Every structure is written in structure tokens, then in C-alpha cells.
């Protein structure tokens, strides 16, 4: 289709729109009658890849959102889900975008998005942990891998 190439870049995102119940409420009810469909969030930068990953749900933060994306790997962390808050001293500074298990490495990778201006808190020696509400904390990672720039 003419014009589509202007929408497709490395940061373009595709996801399936379907009925979902989550922390933010219920969405996609219209698809009960029409059926599921694929939604596109156009990108603005990066070379067009040969393939795109199809997400099960819409991204929590658009590719052009101000902030930083961080990948944390853990061998033994409690379960975190997309939409869970990332807190700094009790204040929400971001959220968990994705969680994936790598069976070969036996690790769980969490992609977090830290909103600007709070992204300045992420330095090379930042530490993340899962606060279970009790005195014990499940340590996620001592070193975060910065996957994308600011």
C-alpha cells in the first residue's frame, strides 16, 4: 500500500486488539462483535526491520515518550506483570512494560519504562528490587542494562 513505508520504522509497534481485563480496567470490548484486529503505532526512527514482534497488548508507553527503557534480568525474582508500578521512595516513577522468561538462560527479563524527569535517577550504579511489602526483598538485579537511549 502506498504511504505505509512512512509509518514503518524500527520503533513502530504492532499489537492485537482484543477484550482484556487488567489493572487499568476493561478494554477491547468492541472486538466481541467485530473480532480481534492488529493495531499499529507508527514509529519515527530506526531502520525498518524485516520482521516486527506482535505484542499481546498495547505498549504502556509510546516509543516517543520522554524517559528511559531499562532491562533487568533476574534468576529468582517474584512475579512482576506489565503495568506494575516502579516506585522510588514510595512515588511512582515508571512501570513494568514486559516480562519474559528465557528457558535457556533460566532468567526472567523485565522491561521497565521510567518516565522523565525521573529517568535522571537511573545511573550506572542503580539497584532495583521487588518490595514484597514485608521486610524481605527479592533482589532483581545489581546492574541494569540500558537497552535504549533517552
UniProtKB/TrEMBL annotation:
Q: Which domain of life is it from?
A: Bacteria
| Main localisation | membrane
Single GO cellular component term: plasma membrane
- The residue ranges of the Mce/MlaD domain are 67-127
Residues folding into a coiled coil are none
Q: Where in the cell is it found?
A: Cell inner membrane
Q: Which UniProt keywords apply?
A: Cell inner membrane, Cell membrane, Membrane, Transmembrane, Transmembrane helix
Q: Does Ribosomal protein count among this protein's keywords?
A: no
The protein depicted here goes by the name Paraquat-inducible protein B
Amino acid at each position: 500500500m502506498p504511504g505505509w513505508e512512512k509509518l514503518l520504522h524500527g520503533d513502530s509497534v504492532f499489537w492485537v486488539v482484543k477484550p482484556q481485563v487488567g489493572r487499568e480496567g476493561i478494554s477491547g470490548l468492541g472486538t466481541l462483535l467485530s473480532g480481534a484486529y492488529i493495531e499499529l503505532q507508527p514509529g519515527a526512527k530506526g531502520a525498518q526491520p524485516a520482521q516486527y514482534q506482535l505484542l499481546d497488548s498495547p505498549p504502556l508507553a509510546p516509543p516517543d515518550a520522554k524517559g528511559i527503557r531499562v532491562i533487568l534480568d533476574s534468576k529468582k525474582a517474584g512475579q512482576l506483570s506489565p503495568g506494575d508500578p516502579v516506585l522510588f521512595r514510595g512515588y511512582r516513577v515508571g512501570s513494568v512494560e514486559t516480562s519474559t522468561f528465557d528457558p535457556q538462560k533460566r532468567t526472567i527479563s523485565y522491561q521497565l519504562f521510567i518516565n522523565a524527569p525521573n529517568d535522571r535517577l537511573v545511573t550506572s550504579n542503580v539497584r532495583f528490587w521487588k518490595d514484597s511489602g514485608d521486610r524481605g526483598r527479592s533482589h532483581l538485579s545489581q546492574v541494569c542494562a540500558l537497552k535504549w537511549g533517552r
